[in-house]
Design goal:
Blueprint (H helix, E strand, L loop, with lengths): L1 H25 L6 H18 L1 H15 L4 H10 L8
Length: 88
């Protein structure tokens, strides 16, 4: 859970830096502070909320790659998996 939050923070902070950089470059001679601040806040909320499932999935993939399933875990999953009946 903490790893997913850390990955989400990296995604969010990376998008915030990109938005600020684009905003500053686009309005360079007279930097529009309030519009850039507003857009940055909206991006922070959207990326933070919408990106969490993606970061959670990414963290689970990293965790599974670092700690692969053992044979007893796979057998335990097979015994507790629901049996799907086929409707005829």
């Amino acid at each position: 859970m903490l790893g997913a939050a850390a990955i989400n923070a990296m995604f969010t902070l990376g998008s915030l830096m990109a938005v600020m950089l684009v905003g500053i470059v686009a309005t360079y001679p007279e930097i529009a502070v309030w519009p850039i601040t507003f857009v940055t806040g909206v991006v922070a909320l959207v990326v933070g909320i919408v990106g969490y499932p993606i970061s959670y999935t990414t963290w689970l993939a990293i965790d599974l790659a670092m700690h692969p399933l053992e044979a007893d875990e796979i057998a335990d999953t097979a015994t507790h998996a629901p049996v799907h009946s086929q409707a005829q």
